[in-house]
Amino acid sequence: MVDGDAAVGHGPPVSRGDAPSWLDELVLEPGPPWHHMGLRAVDEAAWLVVDDRREAELAEKARLLAQRHDEVFAALDGTGPAGDETLALITGWLARHRPDLVIPRPAPGAADAHPLELAGRQVQEDLCLMDRRDGATRLVAASLCFPTHWRLRDKIGGSAAAIHGPVPHYREELAPRVDRFLERIPAGRISVRRNWGVHDHDTLFVPEHPSPRPGITADDAGERLWLRSERQTLRRLPETGAVLFTIRVQFARLGVLAARPDVARRLAAAARGAAAAGTDRVPAHLDAVCAWLDRVR
């Protein structure tokens, strides 16, 4: 617990960088309920996000695919057609909206790769394919270079309920709605949502919960902690009927919220609620996070 002197401080400093616009897309509620689908429709032009992290993130994807391929890519038999459709969708989107970024040929050594892997090498998003098998909508293929606390090899072939099995309150609050949505999502509609968590690093590849960094206090939480958010989209592929789930990981240093007291206030309430519910959105440093946020005025 933060002591009384630390809680007084001099107010949170404004950290490097501006507050990103995606902060306004976060669903920050103290709960219950503890989970929200928070889906909204998005236009085709806004389906994917391209920013100044593109070159670095595509390079990191290439490194992971070369060095840890079996950890970041998996595909069940029979997923080639849905992969082909995804690749055509990705390259078509880039050609229409960012023709300057079209990659004309596969990366060295990737010419014979699964088409979903080729698609994933062209965008900053991770790409997951869900399809109906054995009575449930299951994860059948994925290019997952930037996971947040889960391993692809443990989830491939699983249903949405199985994938989210360890998440507190998921089964009773979200599982039925997610299953219905995946069954009924029409082709031609793109839905988007965001999640969030507070981390003490800005590492992209995080398949496990890392050990918390020691010594973070309310005085330096703004500089040493990060808000990690996944921008997730879902759309049905019109030809194969599979559902394409994209995941774009984005970070903001906690300190940028010094310029957004409205978000800081809601985040503090949501963080306390998440901790009470046993979720892992703020797995460590809860007291420092909330004390820092409470200072923002």
Question: What's the gist of this structure?
Answer:
34% of the residues lie in helices and 18% in strands.
Low-confidence parts lasting 5 or more residues at pLDDT below 50?
1-16
Tally of DSSP helical segments = 12
Radius of gyration: 20 Å
Spell out the helices and strands N to C: HEHHEHHEEHHHHEHEEHH
Largest sheet: 7 strands, antiparallel
Sequence of strands across the biggest β-sheet: 1-5-6-7-3-4-2
Distance between the termini: 22 Å
Give the strand tally.
7
What's the average pLDDT?
A: 88
Specify the helix fraction band. Answer: 25-40%
Please tell me the total number of domains.
1
Proportion in β-strands: 15-25%
Would you tell me the structural class of the helices and strands?
Answer: alpha+beta
Q: Give the overall shape.
A: globular
Provide structural commentary:
The chain has 297 residues and is of the alpha+beta class. The chain has one domain. The protein contains 12 helices and 7 strands. Strands 1-5-6-7-3-4-2 form a 7-stranded antiparallel β-sheet. Helix 11 (261-277) packs antiparallel against helix 12 (286-295). The longest helix is centred in the first third of the chain and has 18 residues, at 80-97. Residues 1-16 have low confidence and may be disordered.
What distinguishing features does this structure have?
single chain; 18% strand; 297 residues; alpha+beta; disordered N terminus
